[in-house]
Amino acid sequence: MSDRRNLTAWADGYWWSNDGLRLHYRDYPGRDDRPPILCIPGLTRNARDYEALAQRHAGEWRVIVVELRGRGESAYAKDPMTYVPLTYLQDLEALIAELELTRFVAVGTSLGGILSMLLASTHPERIAGAALNDVGPELDPAGLARIRTYVGKPMWHATWVHAARSVAEANGDVYPHYGIEDWLRMAKQLYRLTPAGRIVLDYDMKIAEPFRLPGSEAGPDMWRAYDALKGKPLLLVRGGRSDILSASVAERMVDRLPGAELVTVPEVGHAPTLEEQEAAAGIDRLLAKVAAA
Which residues of the chain have pLDDT under 70? Predict the structure, then answer.
């Protein structure tokens, strides 16, 4: 399969969770003398979020983009209480074992960044480098409250234009400079077309059940997990308008791990797409450090 721009083909891969779910990932080819890039999307997102990053780096780097349980082409869980970070971590560990990944660059947006830190905390020697996109060991309660207002609410539309308008209404403050083409593209990342002709959100609405419980966002001491990235090439990306990663927490992260690079994407909220000039250049610098090491 390849994306609609027909730039770089990927292979669809599947693996099994410990509780019997068939999970999906995209595998973009790259050099085998470099550690692959393991991309982990956010709470309600899927592999399409990383199309631009994969197209930019595939060939020079193998890019593996996972879809967490209940998202995209990954199976939905029978028990909604498995939609929690520690279960996602077990799923990722199963994939890492399946693919025999001894070292990789972790790139995680929001929830994906939390999982990147947890992966580092369990086996730091596997982490060749990491990019945490608009997330840190402490999450802003205001942003979490906002996310809880919409996650898990089923929505469907008759046309892609209607879907784009809905996305624009919900995210206008996050991406204030977007135009209709941007909103259409985002709609096609967030939604899927059903056989019945409806355009629906591409995730299991039940992922909201555990997320609505206070304290369920991460689990363990995330500062300790973050510390496991010490000495690794590390990029921190923050949206200048973010209500999830505050500027003060981002600065504490830099102070705590000297050598970490903080890139702030101006006039963008939660979360940057990593396609912005500032973020893309930061990813380039991170990968250059990994390659040099």
Answer: 1-7, 214-220
Answer yes or no: are the C-beta atoms of 72 and 235 closer than 8 Å.
Answer: no
Q: From the centroid of its chain, how far is CA 265?
A: 17
pTM confidence score: 0.94
pLDDT tens track for 202-225:
999 999 999 777 655 545 689 999
Calculate ∠ Cα 175-176-179, nearest 5°.
85
Coil, strand or helix at 26: strand
Contacts of 157 (CB under 8 A, 6+ apart): 163, 166, 191, 198, 199
Q: What is the DSSP letter of 61?
A: B
Fill in the DSSP letter of residue 288: H
CB 99 within 8 A of CB 225: no
Separation of alpha carbons 94 and 81, rounded Å: 19
pLDDT at 118: 96
Dihedral Cα 181, 183, 189, 191, nearest 10 deg: -120
